[in-house]
UniProtKB/TrEMBL annotation:
Alphabetized NCBIfam families for the sequence: GjpA (NF033942)
Name of the protein described by the UniProt record: Outer membrane porin GjpA
Entry-linked InterPro entries: GjpA-like (IPR049934)
Length: 378
């Protein structure tokens, strides 16, 4: 072994020695004579590096994210609450118009409430609800993506533990898990971004900008150091292995949006598309990046991590709830969802009592309010 290593060690010493000789000054400077390097504000010679580009990139990325968040929110602000109020208004009017439908209406309210609550965490949701929601919380198709792997996870679980672990697995793909990731992201992402910048050998100015970039736009933490432990844990079939792993922490303005649900088509009363709004949302599972090899048929599969921030997570959650309550169409991943141009709560009204007909006169119109006050002594 020593004889095998010796030539490489000798070559290494020679290279290092040559580097030291090349780095040595031709003339030794006088002792106690200090010289200052020429400073310049250009990107090539400044000791701080490029002074403007890193901050410009941070601002432009944050501006793009804020634009997407704003458009996604203004399509129907707090759409889950709006749709719930619109539905409740309709139910109240239905009961007033036909009291015999009270039991049926109460049953429908319970059904919608159960669908909305189960869609938030997916822990107690039926498979149809899970299939509908994950199109809004993760990417994927029949040939790849997070949703494909998400559907295969139960097959890797021990049969005796599958039922107890299924709710936890479902939660990882739920919009509420995105809310959790969004809550911790702005606190963790700046440190991750700064660590990545230092590791990549960036300039001092780029390192400073990376902190703000992480806080606003998120950062991705490389977890390849965990691969030996993961591959050696025996969780995967012998032919499969994890080749890469990372996790994306969202910043304050991270939108997520790398989901299989297509952009929203906003339509007018005639069904004509007025504008298109990019999807917003994600999940904890969608925040994980994976590289897998040895997969049957596909062989290699790469899952890109997608960062979700607190604002994007709440907008996505509201849209999931609204969709479960009837807002929009096409949220099954098979086509572009369509939502009306008018938000569901914009024409919200409350039930009114019918007028009582008494020989052609109305109690409401014939009532003498001033005479009533006089009778009370006012």
């Amino acid at each position: 072994m020593q004889h095998a290593i010796k030539p490489y060690a000798t070559a290494g010493v020679a290279i290092v020695g040559a580097g030291l000789i090349a780095a040595a000054p031709a003339v030794t400077p006088l002792p106690q004579v200090h010289t200052w390097p020429d400073l310049s504000l250009t990107a090539d010679s400044s000791p701080l590096g490029d002074l403007s580009t890193p901050w410009t990139d941070v601002f432009n990325t944050a501006s793009d994210n804020l634009d997407q968040l704003t458009r996604g929110f203004l399509v129907a602000p707090f759409v889950g609450f709006q749709q719930a109020m619109a539905n409740l208004n309709g139910f109240m009017q239905q009961i007033q118009d036909d009291p015999s439908t009270t039991n049926a209406v109460i049953g429908e309210i319970q059904t919608q409430l159960k669908a909305a609550l189960s869609s938030m965490t997916l822990m107690n949701a039926d498979q149809d609800t899970v299939n509908a929601v994950i199109h809004q919380t993760m990417d994927g198709s029949a040939l790849g993506g997070h949703s494909l792997i998400f559907g295969q996870i139960p097959g890797f679980l021990p049969p005796e533990q599958a039922d107890s672990l299924a709710p936890i697995i479902n939660f990882l793909g739920s919009p509420m898990s995105a809310v959790m990731m969004g809550a911790i992201g702005p606190s963790i992402a700046p440190w991750v971004a700064m660590m990545n910048s230092i590791t990549e050998g960036d300039s001092f100015n780029e390192i400073l900008a990376s902190w703000l970039n992480g806080f606003l736009n998120g950062a991705t933490l490389n977890l390849d150091s965990l691969l030996p432990a993961i591959n050696g844990a025996g969780l995967l079939p012998e032919t499969m292995s994890v080749t890469h792993m990372d996790i994306a922490f969202g910043g304050l303005l991270s939108t997520g949006g790398h989901v299989s649900a297509t952009p929203i088509d906003v339509v007018d009363a005639d069904g004509n598309t007025v504008t298109t709004v990019d999807a917003i949302g994600g999940s904890m599972f969608n925040s994980i990046g994976l590289g897998l090899s040895g997969i049957p048929i596909l062989n290699n599969l790469t899952l890109e991590s997608d960062a979700i921030g607190p604002l994007g997570a709440w907008i996505g959650l509201s849209q999931v709830i609204g969709a479960q309550l009837g807002w929009g169409t096409g949220w099954t991943g098979k086509g572009a969802p369509e939502v009306p141009l008018t938000p569901p709560g914009s024409d919200l009204g409350f039930p009114t009592l019918p007028e009582f007909d008494d020989g052609g006169s109305s109690v409401a119109t014939d009532f003498d309010f001033s005479g009533f006050l006089d009778s009370l002594g006012f």
